[in-house]
């Protein structure tokens, strides 16, 4: 790229950011007034700025505001915001709350993957004559595996934002939901890796290599990186008096971890989340509490860019009557598969009825993590544009359902609003996470006792 072309691209990126960030903030505020999490407004902002709405106007303002040469740079900023946010999610994860619940987490995760996966593969067979495409000798295998994986996704980052907005991020039910979502998404990304291998690879070695590297990476993070960070950040070390130096170490480790999981074929969010989880939280909070706070605050400006920029590739035009029928079938299968799979497994492993229902509702949130997976499938040719659009609509609707359903399960006292933590878009949730969990809601009978069915000590 020549110097003049680079300068022009930089100007395009600046203009794009000047449009994206205010649009995300405004739509996030509107979503909160509609008793929805801010993240849903940011999703809507991206969809409206894309070809489905703004692109319909004369002159195609979408192409003018976001030219092709600028989009990779906007995507880079968006991914950086997502990685920084996921560090904060891992950093605040309290695994002690899951003690004694490993069987329940595994059961809920597997059940809420197997059932929607089966329904997704069935839909792939049913939709085969409606535009699903195979890859040569694969036939229907690729579309079936892919649609099953897409139905099995729970949007980990979006779920984390919703939990934070509701004050559940540090509660046991929230921690369990995040653990289940993380395990589910790992399974779904693994299935996606199988699809990629089937389409692009000549043998099974690439998949086996990714699984081996991922396992070694997780073991290394837990048994090498975590002890090393404890020694490096010990209070007796003289360099720990300089918060800037500590911040550099943590920030570099975060980015390298995200790079490592991406290089293995997984998503960057898993590396960022795992690094946040192994960072010695007590040491940082005792000596340099400003370090994680700065990293999390850095994501507040960039995270809305992730949700908005991703929506630029979505096009709802030309869905038609057949597409609407596909959407209805996908919505029914998606909601039934996730809710029944998660709630039934939770109930069978000892959860109260209300806990089981809450997990079923939370596991049904898919968000724009689904779009990451769907774009891969579209690029591979295992789904066409209509199926892509239908699945995007399903992701938006299932995410939109989560907030109101949680609101009914978690009745708020008159002294607080439902989405107070999301008042400033991404900032609200992080700020509230720093301040600690909200007061427990009172039960429906008005007895004044904490609702321990959902919020356990």
Automatic annotation (TrEMBL):
The segment(s) forming the Cation/H+ exchanger transmembrane domain are 24-409
* InterPro entries attached to this UniProt entry: Cation/H_exchanger_TM, CPA2_transporter, Na+/solute_symporter_sf
Q: How does it sit in the membrane?
A: Multi-pass membrane protein
Subcellular location per the Swiss-Prot or TrEMBL entry: Membrane
Which keywords accompany this UniProt record?
Ion transport, Membrane, Transmembrane, Transmembrane helix, Transport
Q: What is its main location?
A: membrane
Q: Where is this region: Disordered?
A: 416-457
Which Gene3D superfamilies does this entry report, sorted A to Z?
Answer: 1.20.1530.20
**Residue spans crossing the bilayer:** 13-31, 38-56, 76-93, 105-132, 144-164, 176-201, 207-225, 245-278, 323-346
What's one Pfam family here? Na_H_Exchanger
The identity of this protein, by name, is: Cation/H+ exchanger transmembrane domain-containing protein
> Upper lineage ranks?
Bacteria, Bacillati, Actinomycetota, Actinomycetes, Kitasatosporales
């Amino acid at each position: 790229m020549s110097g003049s072309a680079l300068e022009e691209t930089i100007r395009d990126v600046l203009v794009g950011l000047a449009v994206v960030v205010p649009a995300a903030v405004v739509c996030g505020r509107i979503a909160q007034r509609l008793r929805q999490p801010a993240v849903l407004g940011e999703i809507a902002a991206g969809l409206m700025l894309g070809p489905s709405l703004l692109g319909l106007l004369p002159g195609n303002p979408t192409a003018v505001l976001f030219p092709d040469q600028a989009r990779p740079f906007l995507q880079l900023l968006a991914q950086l915001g997502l990685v920084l946010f996921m560090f904060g999610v891992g950093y605040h994860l309290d695994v002690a709350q899951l003690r004694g619940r490993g069987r329940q987490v595994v059961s809920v995760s597997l059940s809420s993957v197997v059932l929607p996966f089966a329904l997704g593969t069935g839909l792939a067979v049913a939709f085969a004559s409606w535009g699903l495409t195979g890859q040569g000798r694969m036939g229907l295998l690729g579309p079936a595996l892919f649609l099953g994986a897409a139905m099995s996704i729970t949007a980990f980052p979006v779920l984390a934002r919703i939990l934070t907005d509701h004050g559940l991020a540090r509660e046991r039910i929230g921690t369990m939901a995040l653990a289940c979502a993380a395990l589910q998404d790992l399974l779904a990304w693994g299935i996606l890796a199988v699809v990629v291998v089937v389409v692009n690879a000549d043998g099974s070695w690439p998949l086996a290599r990714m699984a081996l590297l991922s396992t070694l990476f997780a073991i290394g993070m837990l048994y090498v990186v975590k002890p090393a960070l404890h020694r490096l950040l010990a209070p007796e070390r003289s360099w720990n008096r300089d918060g800037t130096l500590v911040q550099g170490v943590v920030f570099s480790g975060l980015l390298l971890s995200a790079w490592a999981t991406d290089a293995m074929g997984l998503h960057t969010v898993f590396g960022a989340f795992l690094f946040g989880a192994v960072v010695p939280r007590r040491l940082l909070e005792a000596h340099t509490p400003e370090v994680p706070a700065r990293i999390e605050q850095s994501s507040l400006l960039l995270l809305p860019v992730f949700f908005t920029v991703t929506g630029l590739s979505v096009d709802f035009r030309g869905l038609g009557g057949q597409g609407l029928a596909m959407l209805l079938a996908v919505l029914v299968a998606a909601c039934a598969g996730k809710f029944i799979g998660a709630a039934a497994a939770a109930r069978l492993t000892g959860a109260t009825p209300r806990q089981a229902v809450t997990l079923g509702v939370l596991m049904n949130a898919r968000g724009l993590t689904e779009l990451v997976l769907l774009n891969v499938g579209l690029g591979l040719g295992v789904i066409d544009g209509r199926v892509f659009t239908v699945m995007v609509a399903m992701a938006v609707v299932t995410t939109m359902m989560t907030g109101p359903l949680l609101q009914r399960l978690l009745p708020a006292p008159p002294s607080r609003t439902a989405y107070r933590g999301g008042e400033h878009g991404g900032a609200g949730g992080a700020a509230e996470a720093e301040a600690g969990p909200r007061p427990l809601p009172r039960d429906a009978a008005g007895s004044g006792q904490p609702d321990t069915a959902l919020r356990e000590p």
